[in-house]
Design a protein that fits this description.
The complex is a heterodimer of chains A (331) and B (322). Chain A is built from 14 helices and four strands. Chain A is mostly helical. Chain A has a single domain, classed as ABC transporter involved in vitamin B12 uptake, BtuC (Orthogonal Bundle). In chain A, the strands form two sheets. Chain A has a two-stranded antiparallel sheet with strand order 1-4. In chain A, strands 2-3 form a two-stranded antiparallel sheet. Chain A is globular, with a radius of gyration of 21 Å. Chain B is of the alpha/beta class and 322 residues long. About 5% of the residues of chain B have low confidence. In chain B, strands 2-1-3-4-5-11 form a six-stranded parallel sheet, sandwiched between helices. A six-stranded mixed sheet of chain B has the order 7-6-8-9-10-12, with helices on both faces. Chain B folds into two domains: 135 residues, Rossmann fold, CATH 3.40.50; 111 residues, 3-Layer(aba) Sandwich (Rossmann fold), CATH 3.40.50. Classes of the chains: A mainly alpha (331), B alpha/beta (322). The interface between A and B is large, with 56 and 52 residues.
């Protein structure tokens, strides 16, 4: 008896998006040729990986009740600078690659720190600040290369993006570690709990002794850091970085985050949900492409799928609130 | 929650092979199967190219898989499309790379699978990968000839010109600009500015407005694609300045406009025939699969399209413009 109830409660707590993923996978398994091919499933994971890494910062910002529109721009700029460094070396080796990663991360963190300073310590509007830094980052990326694409790297550089260790893609291992560490940070450390607290209510957090300014600063700093890392990953995976490489990633990330179940109210959801969200978005895109739909329909269908999930999430939320009220009044 | 989700995922992973059987039949039915990966489908040039490639595929009775990135000109998505297409192991690939160097990891995968690759529109120059042939227009020559035509048709000496480019960094756009710049320099004209407008009509409109503001007295604006020129047409017309337009490519819309306005503003374009490219690529793909010898490249320099040229009436007739 107890077990059944426990089981039922557990089922209720599985994020809705997990069912969404299962449903679309079943649909595509029957309709899309090669969808269930192991190679395709691996492709999906690899495509989701980069979206997931860039969504880490976005998730933290949204959990803190803010937004970070600059991640796509930061990824482009930092990938570009890392790429220019690599291009300046005739035959980059592993050490150069490491330096390039550090450069990308440093550039990303610097822009992130600027966002964090302006929003956390100076209290400027987060939409405006991150929108401007997005524009600045894309603009700088274009300026430093005169609008050209930096591309054509050797296999050492591309190892992280497309190489394998023991038959497993390096990109997947790296993503797994990064996301694992960040999930731990968000749920088991003081900083993570502070982010949730700030997102729930800045005033309450402040009154309870949370350093709101510092928390917000750290959120944007980390967001920039992961966007910077993502810039290198894009370079390594696609063998090129151009002025428009990260274009659109900010909105794909937001879609992945919201679809996953993190809400714009702040304080609700988490990185775990974003993992599902990123998988969902990637699966839908991949499946629709395999079905052979025209590219215009694909675009529209991606929208419909996202809308569907968001509506279901909203309904669930409503029902949960209703149930909670009922319990208060009846028990 | 976590336990549950993990359990679900594991169960699901075990179930997946069951579904795998249902995921469609493989395309191995003896027909020739060609994968065509283009840059985008939001621009008349590619729409026409795809339509003609499909028509040719039907004529030759082969399977043609047309793959288009959701984000126009996205190298990343083109790489994903290659990975997807490889699952079907087609007999031949036709690829129009958005980034000639960036596409290399994808080309390596196709090389590993031992499938021939026909490159079109923008050439791949990396010596570490193998491609069968290149089909395209000589972009440098296109820009060069068009610039010469612009100088000839305006009859101005030491004029000033601005170039509206496509997406920053793309080889086809860069080569067209380089050709144009060389020609203008030879003929004593000054290129006052080069502005990228991402092959987009709207961006071209804005860029043209800015140029007209910034450089009064400019004589010609050269566009690296005709769709950008069409987008910017109103901006130039409404500026009230005596500025002429020339553009690479032609579409039915542009020909109609030239005819209707008597080439008052859009004075010339240079042909960069997408129909020929699409159909040729498919035909060569089939010949290659059948084991015929293929030349290393099929380059075409488009003809200048203007009322002063011989092909003018023929061109109008072909597009049904009277």
């Amino acid at each position: 008896m107890l077990n059944i109830r426990l089981f039922r409660n557990e089922i209720k707590r599985v994020p809705g998006i997990a069912y969404g993923i299962i449903i679309v996978m079943v649909i595509f398994a029957f309709t899309a040729r090669n969808f269930m091919n192991p190679v395709n499933l691996e492709n999906i994971l690899r495509n989701a990986a980069i979206l997931l890494v860039i969504s880490i910062g976005g998730t933290m910002a949204i959990l803190a009740g803010k937004i970070d529109l600059s991640i796509g721009g930061i990824a482009t700029l930092s990938g570009m600078i890392g790429g220019i460094y690599l291009k300046s070396i005739p035959e980059p080796n592993a050490f150069n690659v490491l330096i390039s990663i550090l450069i990308s991360i440093a550039v990303g963190s610097a822009v992130g720190a600027f966002n964090g300073f302006m929003i956390g310590y100076r209290g400027y509007d987060n939409w405006l600040i991150t929108f401007s830094t997005m524009s600045i980052a894309f603009g700088l990326a274009q300026t430093i290369t005169g609008g050209n694409i930096v591309s054509g790297f050797n296999r050492t550089v591309r190892f992280i993006g497309s190489g394998q260790i023991f038959g497993i893609r390096v990109l997947l291992i790296l993503t797994f570690i990064v996301v694992g560490v960040m999930i731990f940070v968000m749920h088991r450390t003081r900083f993570g709990l502070h982010v949730y607290a700030v997102g729930d209510s800045e005033t309450c957090a402040k009154v309870s002794g949370v350093n709101v300014k510092k928390t917000l600063f750290m959120v944007y700093l980390l967001s920039g850091l992961f966007a910077g890392l993502c810039g290198f990953l894009l370079l390594s995976k696609t063998n090129s970085v151009g002025p428009t490489t990260g274009d659109g990633y900010e909105f794909n990330a937001i879609a992945a985050i919201i679809v996953g179940g993190t809400t714009f109210d702040g304080g609700k959801g988490g990185l775990g949900s974003t993992v599902f969200g990123a998988l969902f978005i990637t699966i839908v895109k991949n499946g629709l492409q395999l079905i052979g739909l025209s590219v215009f329909w694909q675009q529209a269908c991606v929208g419909f799928f996202i809308l569907g999930i968001i509506l279901v999430n909203a309904l669930n939320e409503k029902r949960a609130v209703k149930n909670a009220k009922r319990r208060i009044y009846h028990d | 929650m976590r336990k549950m989700s993990i359990a679900f995922m594991i169960i699901f992973l075990f179930l997946t092979p069951l579904f795998a059987g249902g995921s469609g039949e493989s395309a191995d039915d003896g027909r020739i199967n060609v994968a065509l990966i283009v840059k985008q489908q939001t621009n008349d040039f590619w729409v026409e190219m795809i339509a003609n490639a499909e028509a040719k595929a039907e004529e030759l009775d082969i399977d043609l898989d047309v793959l288009v990135p959701l984000t126009p000109d996205s190298n990343e998505e083109q790489l994903q499309l290659i990975e997807q297409a490889l699952l079907d192991s087609p007999d031949c690939f036709i690829i129009a790379p958005a980034d000639s160097n960036g596409i290399v990891p994808g080309i390596e995968l196709i090389n590993e699978a031992g499938i021939p690759i026909i490159v079109c529109d923008s050439a791949i120059t990396d010596p570490s990968v193998e491609t069968l042939t290149f089909i395209g227009s000589d972009n440098y020559a296109c820009g060069y000839e068009l610039a010469k035509a612009a100088v000839r048709l305006t009859g101005i000496e030491n004029g000033k010109v601005a170039i509206i480019e496509g997406r920053p960094g793309q080889a086809s756009s860069l080569e067209r600009s380089a050709g144009a710049e060389a020609a203008y320099k030879e003929l004593g004209w000054t290129v006052v500015d080069k502005v990228p407008a991402n092959w987009s009509r709207e961006d071209a409109y804005n860029a043209s407005q800015n140029i007209l503001q910034a450089y009064p007295g400019i004589n010609v604006i050269q566009y690296n694609s005709v769709s950008m020129a069409l987008g910017a047409y109103d901006a130039v017309e409404q500026s009230g300045q005596d500025v002429k337009i020339v553009a690479v490519d032609k579409t039915k819309e542009s020909l109609q406009l030239m005819k209707d306005t008597n080439c008052e503003i859009l004075i010339a374009s240079v042909d960069n025939p997408p129909d020929v490219m699409g159909a040729n690529a498919v035909e060569i793909a089939v010949r290659c699969v059948q084991g015929e010898e293929i030349a290393p490249s099929y380059l075409a320099t488009g003809a200048i399209i203007a009322p002063s040229e011989e092909n003018w009436d023929e061109m109008l007739q072909k597009y049904g413009i009277v």
